[in-house]
């Protein structure tokens, strides 16, 4: 017997929402063992969805992971690295992207939140429409934090124009020389600061917080950090309300839990871990706003939500918010070794939940998956072929993403300051005979590279403590061959 409701939901394309949290570690959510902060909305998604234990961002920093997510291409192919706030767009607008592919499949596409993929093609004029950005990459609608919360300009862009810009107070940005008449600097006016920082974040002060870079003008356009979660959630839920009758793709890219971690008063002291825990609670609230909006518009049932993060956790990334001191027993990376910037597992092994009531059975999956595969997997889901030269590194694992199969990738690349490669539960780390970059040494993070080969068996040693490279020359040979093939 055909049940009419099921028949229709099987035929109609699901809405797709990627909730992309910034710097959230594997262990930072309740269902994965968080201590000291509660994440009821994320836990609810996990309870009614599929919780992945071995799904990865493609890199252990932001820009490279986002680049791979949207292009299906490894970041090294384009030398994608962390970008400054005035960097040019790094996605080739002639190539197909994930949102362009979904547009062809009839989707309305929107991005709300952190961008950090560059804008324009050289010198950006912040006082007019910026000519290269999300629109040219395939998003019909955009509302952006241009780079990161700790980089100028601290203004929102809606459809590539600064929100509340004023021609009489034009915006100038510099990542080099100081700007005459620009905002005061953290290193000269520490008395103006709400939160102190390391020397790298002592540039322009806006809203009482010093950032990387110099900025002048745009006084009425400056964001208030404490309101960011509300502004972004409102824009995301409006997009859902507006597009509820189309299939839509929303890339909701939260600012939380990146620094500066300045929680709204609603969330201050909602954890026992200080600002870092409070913004985890704030992030969780944003997730709840999205599910509530989907429910309200009656589209939750047929919406595929993918909740995940761009790179591993970091405690001290430059702002003095006592994340280390207040951590307690909480383990941001779960049992995994490493952090943001690291090639060890916690650098890329992300909290990952897939929720689609109409199609996905609740449960857990240990399939080995990479976000670079979402492109080909979603293309398969919506019956789109992948254009020539597009998404060269993306594999179709839609059955694994939807829990119909436990089999994911045979090999998985982890990009960091060196390369990691997974083959089942083997983990190989390419040697690198260079000193750790200076600023990394100040972050209490081990980026994981050594001058000798590292090999771990994650079955027996999930925390990558025992390097067994010497005992397994044949495994190393196979993995090095594969890595060479990928990197050539
Ligand atoms: C680093 C910044 C750090 C953070 C990171 C980007 C310094 C010393 N550190 O270069 O503060 O902004 O870039 O984080 O400048 S990410 O999540 O967007 O990759
Ligand atoms: Ca990040």
From TrEMBL:
All copies of domain Sulfatase N-terminal, residue ranges: 14-382
CDD domains xref list: ARS_like
Record-given protein name: Arylsulfatase
Pfam families in alphabetical order: Sulfatase
Domain of life: Bacteria
PANTHER family in the cross-refs: N-ACETYLGALACTOSAMINE-6-O-SULFATASE, SULFATASE
PROSITE patterns: SULFATASE_1, SULFATASE_2
Molecular function GO labels: hydrolase activity
Species the sequence originates in: Polaribacter aestuariivivens
InterPro entries, per the entry: Alkaline_phosphatase_core_sf, GAG_Ulvan_Degrading_Sulfatases, Sulfatase_CS, Sulfatase_N
SUPFAM superfamilies: Alkaline phosphatase-like
Keyword entries, A-Z: Hydrolase
Similarity section: Belongs to the sulfatase family.
Coiled coil feature spans: none
């Amino acid at each position: 017997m055909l049940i009419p409701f099921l028949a229709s939901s099987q035929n109609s394309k699901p809405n797709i929402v990627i909730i992309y949290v910034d710097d959230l570690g594997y262990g930072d959510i309740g269902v994965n063992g968080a201590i000291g902060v509660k994440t009821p909305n994320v836990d609810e998604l996990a309870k009614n969805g599929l919780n992945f234990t071995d799904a990865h961002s493609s890199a252990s920093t932001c820009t490279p992971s986002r680049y791979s997510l949207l292009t299906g291409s490894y970041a090294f192919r384009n030398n994608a690295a962390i970008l400054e706030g005035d960097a040019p767009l790094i996605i080739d607008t002639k190539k197909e992207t994930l949102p362009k592919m979904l547009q062809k499949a009839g989707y309305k596409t929107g991005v709300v939140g952190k961008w950090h993929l560059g804008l324009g093609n050289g010198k950006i004029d912040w006082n007019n429409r910026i000519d290269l950005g999300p629109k040219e990459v395939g998003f019909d609608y955009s509302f952006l934090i241009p780079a990161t919360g700790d980089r100028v300009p601290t203004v929102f862009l809606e459809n590539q124009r600064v929100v509340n810009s004023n021609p009489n107070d034009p915006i100038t940005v510099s990542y080099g020389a100081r700007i005459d008449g620009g905002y005061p600097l953290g290193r000269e006016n520490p008395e103006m600061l709400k939160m102190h920082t390391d020397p790298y974040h002592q540039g322009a002060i806006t809203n009482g917080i010093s950032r990387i870079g110099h900025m002048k003008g745009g006084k009425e356009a400056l964001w208030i950090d404490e309101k960011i979660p509300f502004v972004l959630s409102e824009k995301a839920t409006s997009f859902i309300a507006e597009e509820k009758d189309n299939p839509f793709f929303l890339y909701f890219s939260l600012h939380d839990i990146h620094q500066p971690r300045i929680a709204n008063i609603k969330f201050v002291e909602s954890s026992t871990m200080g600002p870092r825990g409070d913004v985890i609670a704030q992030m969780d609230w944003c997730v709840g706003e999205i599910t509530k909006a989907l429910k309200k518009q009656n589209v939750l049932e047929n919406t595929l939500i993918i909740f995940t993060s761009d790179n591993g956790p970091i405690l001290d990334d430059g702002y003095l918010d006592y994340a280390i001191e207040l951590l307690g027993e909480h383990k941001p990376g779960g049992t995994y070794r490493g952090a943001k910037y690291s090639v060890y597992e916690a650098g890329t092994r992300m909290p990952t939940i897939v929720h689609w009531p109409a199609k996905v059975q609740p449960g857990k999956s240990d399939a080995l998956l990479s976000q670079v595969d979402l492109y080909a997997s979603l293309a398969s889901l919506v019956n789109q072929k992948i254009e020539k030269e597009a998404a060269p590194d993306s594999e179709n694992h839609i059955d694994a993403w939807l829990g119909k199969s436990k089999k994911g990738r045979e090999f998985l690349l982890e990009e960091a300051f060196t390369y990691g490669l997974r083959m089942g539960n083997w983990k190989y780390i390419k040697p690198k005979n260079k000193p750790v970059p200076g600023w990394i040494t100040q972050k209490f993070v081990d980026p994981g590279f050594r001058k000798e080969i590292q090999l771990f068996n994650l079955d027996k040693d999930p925390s990558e403590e025992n390097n067994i490279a010497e005992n397994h020359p044949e495994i190393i040979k196979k993995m090095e061959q594969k890595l060479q093939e990928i990197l050539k």
